[in-house]
């Protein structure tokens, strides 16, 4: 009879496979953008960052990096976020060298691979975009968020390549007289946007996690 795996091996396996460390974004069809009421706060691109994290080789090779935000704005009315949008420059997508531990791999090679038609095809689709479609207070009685200090549920249309879907996730929003900050971490399924390596059912595609963790820290100033 096969002996059960020791518990520490099971824990290592779950960690390597990228267990549920963040909230899974609810994904729906594209929706109408929220009305841009109130004052526009312009996103400070130098103080704003978008991070991504995924896994390769069945979960045993984590990859992570970031993408620069090109521009955008958030609308504030009576001290509350009402809408907004921002664009990401996909040509700035990079893989953190620290996430590439294989001796025969370089982070710059992975950058080129992700930017190629195999994935994001940035030559044809140089930007990704997020447009807010709804903002609601976060109600902890209706669900538990893995984001510490979540204050709101944000819904928005996320455009990757030539596909747009609506996602909803918890966020931590702070509004002051002169600026607004928004922090979030959530997970999306890349295949919902048609992002597959080779074919959807190919072994090469299976080896890459469908789940991609997205994190952002936005700062917008009046």
UniProtKB/TrEMBL annotation:
Looking up InterPro entries in the UniProt record yields:
Lipid/polyisoprenoid-bd_YceI, TTHA0802/YceI-like_sf
Keyword set for this entry? Signal
This protein's superkingdom?
Answer: Bacteria
**Which N-terminal residues, if any, form the signal peptide?**
1-25
Lipid/polyisoprenoid-binding YceI-like domain spans which residues? 40-221
Pfam families in the record, alphabetically? YceI
Indicate what this protein is called per its UniProt record.
YceI family protein
Q: Which organism is it from?
A: Chitinophaga oryziterrae
């Amino acid at each position: 009879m096969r002996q059960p795996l020791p518990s520490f091996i099971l824990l290592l396996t779950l960690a390597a496979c990228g267990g549920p460390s963040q909230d899974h974004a609810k994904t729906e069809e594209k929706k109408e953008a929220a009305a841009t009421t109130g004052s526009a706060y312009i996103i400070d691109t130098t103080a704003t960052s978008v991070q991504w994290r995924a896994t390769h080789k069945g979960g045993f090779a984590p990859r992570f990096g970031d993408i620069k935000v090109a521009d955008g704005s958030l609308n504030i009315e009576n001290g509350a976020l009402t809408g907004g949008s921002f664009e990401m420059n996909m040509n700035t997508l990079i893989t953190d060298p620290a996430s590439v531990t294989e001796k025969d791999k370089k982070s710059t090679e992975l950058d080129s691979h992700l930017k190629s038609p195999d994935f994001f095809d940035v030559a044809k689709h140089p930007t990704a975009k997020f447009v807010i479609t709804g903002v609601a207070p976060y109600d902890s009685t209706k669900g538990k968020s893995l984001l510490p200090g979540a204050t709101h549920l944000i819904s928005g249309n996320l455009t990757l390549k030539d596909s747009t879907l609506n996602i909803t996730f918890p966020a931590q929003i702070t509004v002051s007289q002169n600026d607004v900050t928004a922090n979030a971490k959530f997970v999306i399924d890349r295949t919902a946007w048609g992002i597959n390596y080779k074919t959807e059912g190919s072994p090469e595609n299976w080896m890459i996690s469908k789940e991609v963790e997205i994190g952002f820290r936005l700062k917008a100033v009046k």
